Amino acid sequence: MTGRVIDGVKLAATIREDVAARAAVLTTKGVKPGLAVILVGQDPASQVYVRNKVAACEKAGLHSVLEQYPADMTQEALLSRIETLNSDHRIHGILVQLPLPKHIDSHRVIETISAQKDVDGFHVSNAGLLMTGTPLFRPCTPYGVMKMLESEDVVLRGAVAVIVGASNIVGKPMAMLLQAAGATVTICNSKTRDLAWHTRHADIVVVATGKPGMVTGDMIKPGAIVIDVGINRGADGKLCGDVDYASVKEVAGAITPVPGGVGPMTIAMLLVNTIEAAERAQLLSRSR
After folding, report:
1. Could you give the residue numbers annotated as active site?
2. By percentage, how much of the chain surpasses pLDDT 70?
3. E strand or H helix at 255, and its extent?
4. In CATH, which superfamily holds the domain spanning 140-263?
5. Is 132 left (phi over 0), alpha (psi -120 to 50) or beta?
6. Rounded distance, CA 285 to CA 281, Å?
7. Residue 288 has pLDDT above 70, yes or no
8. Which pairing describes strands 239-240 and 232-233: parallel, antiparallel, or unpaired?
9. Does residue 259 have a cis bond before it (omega within 30 degrees)?
10. Which entry of 68, 170, 171, 200 is 20 to 30 Å from 133 by CA?
């Protein structure tokens, strides 16, 4: 059996078309959805991510503002800039690209962003709302994964889902979303005993560890859905995921590729969160 490939590029394009249509409607009402992206430092990978996000905004008809600062920018200066953007009615979403330089407390930065403009879904209040099943913003990558599963008509209620990786950005919110959809969820981490036992019993496996090829074909139940969130650069210089694609594809029922899988969906859902923030702001202004 060879698993079908879940095409994140195609699905993301469809979602971006919907965002563009919603943005056009808001524009006729005098609201131009706006996203501010802040990059501190010269990290090459971050620069690529930021460029892709800004380009996606422009293609979807959103107003994007890219602010780049040197690596020695002080934490106080960054927090002050975020506070200014919080008060700017033209900006509906604020994204600070991670990782930040070591002298800046990323938690402090995230908490300074207005929860109403936290389109990454990282603010503690948004994390709490997600925990209680009433999210304001869903973190973009887990949100994108849920859309991919939906596109494959995967039955989540009663399914056994295993998440490899327990980060606040992917693993934990992914578990909350799957659990809310009725799945039975296990989160595995670096200290999990016999990881393969857990993954072999899963109908859905989501891998987000940052370790190339750590999940192999012999660790997957035949027919399982495998979502590879990882993106790494191999010894040959090519991009690869956390899943050994060649071996897992021969066992899985469906699998996401790297590149071309979850990555495009993360950006697409950032646009969705931004348009939702703009729509909420427009409704709020009408009610005043």
Report:
1. 53, 97, 120
2. 99
3. strand 254-255
4. NAD(P)-binding Rossmann-like Domain (3.40.50.720)
5. alpha
6. 6
7. no
8. antiparallel
9. yes
10. 200
Report domain extents, the chain: 29-125, 140-263
Mention every residue, 6+ apart, whose C-beta is less than 8 A from residue 110.
96, 118, 120, 122, 123, 124
CA distance 170 to 221: 23
**Domains 29-125 and 140-263 equal at CATH topology level:** yes
Give the pLDDT confidence of 214-249 residue by residue, as tens digits. Answer: 999 999 999 999 999 999 988 888 999 999 999 999
Q: For the domain bounded by 29-125, which CATH number is listed?
A: 3.40.50.10860
pTM: 0.95
Q: Where are the alpha helices (DSSP H) in the chain?
A: 8-28, 44-59, 75-86, 106-112, 124-131, 140-151, 171-180, 195-200, 245-249, 262-287
Q: Are 42 and 13 in contact (CB under 8 A)?
A: no
Give yes or no for a contact between 172 and 229, defined as CB atoms under 8 angstroms apart. Answer: no
* pLDDT band, residue 1 (cuts 50/70/90): low
Mean pLDDT of the chain: 96
Q: What is the pLDDT of residue 63?
A: 94
Which residues contact residue 113 at a Cβ distance below 8 angstroms, ignoring those fewer than 6 apart?
82, 86, 94, 96, 123
